[in-house]
């Protein structure tokens, strides 16, 4: 019979509706300001006794705790207000040592029965809700020193190639100085080096024994290095934040040497902080031969055992040459990182390993860290940061054959470490170490007034559409409007399930897709009217209207969906967020227009002997 | 029902399009887009109040003093305020802002004033641009596959036409172009494509059904048949956009403007650029006849 659905279709629609309702529900519960404590990379979770100390310290500071939650790798302290949150963070951070990362967070308050169904609310974007704000400082001096080290290494390489004997290289500020046996060697070296390194100002100095060449970076070169460092760090941080899966973050330069990272209410701020601030990198170096002169070697410890090894000072390549990295497990179930090198990195690696088969090569893990000390200066407490670098060997293995572009690294502590290391290598390393100087929650970037007006305008816009549909299509308008409401619930549910971030343009985008969703119904209803005019019976007209409008709707929506999918896969940040909203809107509107309204039409007028349609 | 002779007026429409495109392109070339804080960066000022101020008052005070594109946020506590301005950084801006805020009698101290860089990095900009090109290419392929390559050319030209006109309007009237407007431009692409395909679909259907070879008459019929739908959809969308424009406040204002222009231009272009262009492209019945089975296939789907 015309215009009847089989039972399973009604059930399917009901099921989708029920799922949509459940997963859109968590958005009705607001989030709490919270402080999250989690272990630093690879450490132990907070113990019960430490937690008790934290709780009593908070009680002493007169900060009321709403609740305390712990799970396998973090502890969450919920608080009543944002100002309590800031104070609590200070108290807790002061109490715990470096083994723990203390971060402010916005904790969702979804009831547990919904959580059991893995339902969680949409994250509201930085413009609507705010989030966490990290201010990072780039260590500009270290950027210059690192560049000088690389240059010095290349200079030594050149000198060795020309068999010019040098004794010692020293780096101080922006100056490299090199000692030679005599003035002739130095002059020859100066001629040789100054051709390849035009950024330096060269000067001779006579030493007691032999001669010294000092090379100082020009101001312009220093500016360039620092500019490069901060831009490279910006790119790297953007990559990292995107790898974290945080939609709609903000990463921007602030002042000459700082970078702001703002994340909308991320679930695990502690993890975000660890990844954003991580300065881990790798170095590949050869083990020293017994007869290598002392000034060319460096003794480093292993990370996992108290052994040490003598390594060459010269670095074959660093993590910067890595083009991609993934984590996996070796045959024994130990974590490993698979590495692919870029072109130049591969060549360097191949050249170094080819001529050194049988020698040992070390993989060195480097991390830049700081010790914060508070000292009194002019009666004010000032935080002094002492940067230091930790280098540890993670593996030392014999070179069996010449290595190419891809190989793997083992010897890592834990799967988490392997995952984070591969993420860091993938997103590019930092050109200079960075330090957290400030961490705050930040309010919505749109004023409350603007948000209220935005939401009001959206509501009125929706009402206008509803009224328009009622006036134009009467009874069928009611059906279209019910479908519109269902569509809205489904979009919200889908966005919540995907963990998408909602911003004001996103809301406007949803309203727009709702406007376009009406389009599908308009197409169908206009077609039914047309068929009625050509003299078809009521039931035939409904059937034909849906059938004939079908290809139009599918073609139009599929093309738009195609655009959205491509924008999603290639675009980043806001473009991606918009693409998500648009694709979900298209999918749900196709479902509601083609299935839900049809079901309602079938239920109400389907198969009934009507003479006239109220359309 | 009254029939409008859309195709008869196509020369006038082509001329109008060409003139508008020319104006848009010249404006884009000469004065570019006035990019917003998201793209250019500006100045950040952090101030500390003695007692929590009203953020809206702060914003209004600064706007009244002539600062542009202002975002005001609480920072940590309610007494600390972070202000971002689209204003080239100079060392006095911080003090100017603080003085302005003090004028209303509040106790305000300046914590810091620094320049901030763009939120949109060059890499992101390049990637998004590439994304758009790939998206356009795929749409062409899809339309060529579902319809015919002449349709693909028409749809692509209509899209490019719409995007250039929206961008041109923003450039000509010096309306600020920020990430929200970028989202609107993407939405215009979606909308315009939707509109074009609906009209194309009807044209295809009519070509297969009709016995005459007068393409111009077939197009007119198709456009007239979809006209009530076009007006109803554009009408509802414009209703929503007007609500956003009038009531939505500063932040959605430019978004709504971009979309209003886009919907208007998109409706026009689906008729005159996308459809009417099929005439000079010499679309013939034989271009569509080799695939007569498609409609039957569609019939079997739910």
Key words describing this protein structure:
heterodimer; A: 615 residues; alpha+beta; Multidrug efflux transporter AcrB transmembrane fold; Alpha-Beta Plaits; Hypothetical Protein, Haloacid Dehalogenase-like Hydrolase, Chain: A, domain 2; 4 domains; four-stranded antiparallel β-sheet; 14 helices; 47% helix; 27% strand; elongated; B: 302 residues; 10 helices; disordered C terminus
SS field, number of helical segments of chain A:
14
Compressed to H and E, one letter per element, the order of chain B equals: HEHEHEEHEHHEHHHH
Q: What is the spatial order of strands in the main beta sheet of chain A?
A: 2-3-1-4
Proper CATH architecture of the largest domain in chain A: 2-Layer Sandwich
User: Structural class from helices and strands of chain A?
Assistant: alpha+beta
Low-confidence regions of chain B: 296-302
Strand composition percent of chain A: 25-35%
**Largest Cβ-defined interface:** A-B, 84 and 86 residues
Output the strand order for the largest sheet of chain B: 3-4-2-5
State mean pLDDT of chain B (0 to 100 scale).
Answer: 82
Work out the count of structural domains of chain A: 4
Radius of gyration of chain B, CA atoms, in whole angstroms:
25 Å
| Oligomer designation | heterodimer
Principal-axis shape of chain B:
elongated
Helix content of chain B: 55-70%
* Structural class computed from helices and strand pairing of chain B: alpha+beta
CATH topology name of the largest domain in chain B, in short, is Multidrug efflux transporter AcrB transmembrane fold
Output the number of helix runs of chain B.
Answer: 10
If classified by CATH, what would the architecture of the largest domain in chain B be? Answer: Up-down Bundle
CATH superfamily of the largest domain in chain B: Multidrug efflux transporter AcrB transmembrane domain
